[in-house]
Amino acid sequence: MDAIWFLLGIVVGAALAWLVLQRLSDRRVTEAEERVAAELAHARAQATDADQAHAETKERLIAVQARLQEAEAALERRQAELVAAQNRLAALEARLEEAEAACRRLEAELARVRTSAARPTEAAPVAPAPAPSASAAAAPGPARASGPEEELRRLDARLAMLPAGSSARALLLKQRAELVARIEHPPVPHVPPPPPAPPPEPLPARSEPVRDDLKLIKGIGPVLERRLHELGVKSFADLAALTPERVKEIDEAIEFPGRIERERWIEQAKELLARRPN
């Protein structure tokens, strides 16, 4: 009987122990499931945040790429405009060089005409001719000076081809006025020079006007520097002292309206003068 009770006690104890262990195991499983669920929820929240951050980053990247494409397009347009402006500048400089070459050729022809017109008077003194009568004036006859008149016709033809207001046209008009004055008033006969007078007392040497390198100013090249020298602007001080009327006159002469103000020639000249030692 004791053995039965002993066995029954063992069975009951084993059953109780199994129940206790089962409860502990269920509790641990529940805690583990809760911990895993919490970690999974945290991981899902982190994944959601990462997806949102990725989407925002992708949107910002797309916006940056769009702005970059717009900047590249604007840069290409600016480069195309710069190339076009450089081409126009090169064409204008080439036209200016051609005009200067034409002016030099005209000056050479004018010098040759002056030489040919003065040659007969140097050969022998000529008495003034009597005034022609009306019938003699009406009758055809040889021209008094065919060379200068032919040169005058050539100058008129060249003037007809040049635009109004250009520097080359102004130079040709000046040469034409000199040629007309020479035709209307021929040179007087050559007279032997009087005996040389005693040499005058030497005058104090005059200082040469200051000539600066105008190419140090941004926007002025060799061609524009020569043109400015022809217009009387030879130093930084001349540029710094330009008046609005003088600026307008130089703009029209160099055929670049607004360039002096746009490229700040006057301000650059003042800065160069300020940096120059006394």
In terms of topology, how is this protein built?
Blueprint: H1 2-123, H2 134-138, H3 146-161, H4 167-184, H5 222-230, H6 236-240, H7 244-254, H8 259-262, H9 265-275
Question: What can you see in these coordinates?
Answer:
The structure is a single chain. The chain is rod-shaped, with a radius of gyration of 50 Å. It is built from nine helices and no strands. It has helices at residues 2-123, 134-138, 146-161, 167-184, 222-230, 236-240, 244-254, 259-262, 265-275. By secondary structure, it is mostly helical. Helix content is 72%, strand content 0%.
Keywords:
278 residues, mainly alpha
Poorly predicted residue ranges: 120-145
- Radius of gyration, whole Å: 50 Å
What fraction strand? under 5%
Structure annotation, total helices: 9
Instruction: Quote the average pLDDT.
Output: 79
Shape: rod-shaped
Give the biggest sheet. none
State the end-to-end distance: 135 Å
Number of strands: 0
| Percent range of helical residues | over 70%
Structural class: mainly alpha
Query: What is the chain-wise order of helices and strands?
Result: HHHHHHHHH
Brief description of this entry?
The chain is mostly helical and 278 residues long. The protein has nine helices and no strands.
